[in-house]
Write a structure and sequence with these properties.
Blueprint: H1 5-17, H2 41-44, H3 48-58, H4 66-96, H5 99-103, H6 126-145
Helix pairs in contact: 3-4
Length: about 150
């Protein structure tokens, strides 16, 4: 293929004015974090209340995908199981302390006043524990409605 002088000159001018590709940035291995570190709090949060707040902040219209609702339900169930296990352990510790704890008698010098977030005694058996839990849930539901 042959070009006349004018066409060749024009091609050379265009070649000089074309943008050159930018050099590729060199990425350090520590700059690229694994996928587990790049996740949003909605994907990593385990506390149900904090997860709910994050979901509401992320969703402009309040709609939440079903898989995230399942995660929220699972987090609530896990938290409930953990609370029940802690209550059972507290009951077992109290019953293992001796006859004064089992009979409800307090050692000398102990006050009978209620302290914040504590009961005078813990539930005696699993049925009583379930009743306390159900009552607390009813109180919480009543607070949400009122």
């Amino acid at each position: 293929m042959s070009f006349d002088a004018r066409s060749l000159e024009r091609l050379q001018q265009l070649g000089r004015s074309l943008p050159k590709p930018l050099p590729k940035p060199e990425t350090a291995p520590e700059a690229q974090a694994p996928a587990s570190q790049q996740r949003h709090r909605v994907e990593t949060e385990t506390d149900p209340q904090a997860l709910f707040r994050e979901l509401m902040q992320v969703s402009p219209d309040g709609s939440v995908p079903p898989h995230l609702m399942d995660r929220l339900r699972q987090a609530e169930a896990d938290q409930q199981r953990q609370r029940q296990a802690e209550q059972r352990q507290a009951i077992q510790r109290q019953s293992a302390q001796g006859p004064t704890a089992a009979s409800g008698l307090q050692p000398r010098g102990a006050s009978n006043e209620l302290r914040p977030n504590r009961q005078r005694r813990s539930p005696a058996n699993s049925e009583e524990l379930e009743l306390y839990t159900a009552f607390q849930q009813l109180l919480l539901e009543g607070d949400e409605e009122g």
